[in-house]
């Protein structure tokens, strides 16, 4: 199911960043260092174009793929022996219920203000370029020097931010957590330690099984993961299930 088109400032910034990085890398850096139409230049341009295309494709899938919704018929069964874990409200201890959607919330589901509905397993979602080259070498060097400084000022903080988010999400995948579950887990860990207990994330199955649950069982598909292995999104395997299986 595909989402309808709607303008998003954040998506526009990401798209503009991708376009800027691609064209500046191919038509400025690669062309200046190797010569765009030389063998090294074409090879580097091809590799970078392929990586950019993969980036655009995966980002487009993330933007336009519908995140799913809770079935209107869903009602948690507290007596279901195959589903021993049920999430409850912090206050009152009742089963989680969304007043806006008028639906019970399955495990790991949260209400999204952007989609205006509860989302299953919610996580906190060209033509040519022509540059007129200066006429002499001195102006040419000055042009590239200025462009390098501007690019450095733009790309350095962007690279640091992307490296941080990449490392952060690798950690979340290895722990089988969403960003919301991480923040909730910090509080749960504090409360458990305060009461003299040990807290364990219920969906943590071990690093390898966590990777499988997120990226799929086929390692060859990890570079381009699909969602065929996720299931209904109403129930997820837990550490209790893993212990029972052994």
Topology, please?
Blueprint: H1 9-33, H2 39-64, E1 97-98, E2 103-104, E3 110-112, E4 117-119, H3 137-175, H4 179-194, H5 207-215, H6 239-245
Antiparallel strand pairs: 1-2, 3-4
Helix pairs in contact: 1-2
Summarize the structure.
With 246 residues, the protein is mostly helical. It has 6 helices and 4 strands. Helix 1 runs antiparallel to helix 2.
Outline the structure in words.
The protein is built from six helices and four strands. With 246 residues, the chain is mainly alpha-helical. The strands form two sheets. The chain has a two-stranded antiparallel sheet with strand order 1-2. The chain has a two-stranded antiparallel ribbon with strand order 3-4. Helix 1 (9-33) runs antiparallel to helix 2. The protein is elongated and about 70 Å long. The protein has a domain at 1-66.
């Amino acid at each position: 199911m595909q989402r309808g088109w709607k303008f998003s400032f954040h998506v526009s910034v990401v798209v503009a960043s991708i376009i800027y990085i691609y064209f500046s890398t191919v038509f400025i850096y690669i062309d200046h260092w190797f010569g765009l139409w030389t063998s090294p230049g074409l090879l580097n341009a091809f590799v970078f174009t392929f990586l950019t295309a993969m980036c655009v494709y995966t980002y487009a899938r993330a933007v336009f793929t519908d995140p799913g919704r809770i079935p209107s018929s869903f009602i948690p069964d507290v007596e279901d022996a195959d589903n021993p874990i049920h999430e409850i409200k912090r206050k009152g201890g009742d089963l989680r219920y969304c007043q806006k959607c008028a639906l019970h919330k399955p495990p790991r589901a949260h209400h999204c203000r952007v989609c205006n509905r509860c989302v299953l397993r919610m996580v906190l979602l060209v033509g040519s370029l022509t540059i007129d080259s200066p006429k002499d070498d001195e102006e040419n060097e000055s042009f590239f020097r200025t462009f390098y400084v501007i690019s450095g000022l733009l790309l350095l903080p962007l690279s640091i931010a992307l490296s941080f988010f990449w490392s952060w999400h690798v950690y979340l995948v290895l722990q089988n957590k969403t960003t919301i579950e991480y923040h909730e887990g910090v509080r749960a860990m504090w409360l458990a330690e305060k009461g003299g207990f040990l807290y364990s994330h219920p969906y943590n199955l071990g690093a390898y099984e966590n990777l499988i649950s997120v990226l799929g069982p086929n390692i060859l598909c990890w570079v381009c993961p699909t969602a065929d292995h996720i299931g209904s999104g109403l129930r997820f395997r837990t550490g209790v299930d893993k212990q029972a299986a052994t």
